[in-house]
Design goal:
Elements: H1 6-9, H2 12-23, H3 27-41, H4 48-66, H5 68-80, H6 87-100, H7 110-113, H8 128-160, H9 166-179, H10 188-192, H11 196-202
Helix pairs in contact: 3-4, 3-9, 4-5, 6-8, 8-9, 8-11
Amino acid sequence: KRILVIKDLFDRDSVILMIALITTTSTTGLIAFILMLAFFSLQLKTAAKYFLFATVIIASFLSFSSLDFLGNKISKQLTESGNKSNRFGSFIMDMEHIMKHPLIGNSRRIEVAFGTSKFSAKTHRPNGVSTLLRNYGLIYFTMYYVLVFLSFRKIYHYYHGKYSFAFPAFGVLLLLILSFSENIWDDVSSKSLMFLYLAYFMSPDMN
């Protein structure tokens, strides 16, 4: 959608999305919400964008300071990352596997990656970013995000009549943030993002 004035940020669909993100009390969900507000505030074509951007930054700082599932939760998980399989500890442990086979990965099967067929604290790795790298390697990881970027870029061109680097790159950044604590990359919906580019490229009405 086109972001020109403040009311464009707060139409019905946008408000529904905001409520959904806030009420999940998800750390990464709220971080994504804050980044979205800040990013789209700067897209406004009026001087109000500076006021709105400053308001978002101040509100974000207060939220991180006062909400347990933001600042306190992140600090606690960082402190415990050396001995617990939280999102940060998971990243550290996954790096050991990633360095063994950085290009092609270690397989998504736990029998191959961990040498066991039982799910346990050892195999539980909630960090989606490092899990994707661990399972499939840097080649697939890079190819996936390049294709997702191209999909977002083509969709932006379809609706705006021009190409943009910032908007599709921001979309990729949000995916990285949201997947930092969720293993979503084996879902059909996540994998389909790679092929949206082909659908838009092949359709004569979308060129």
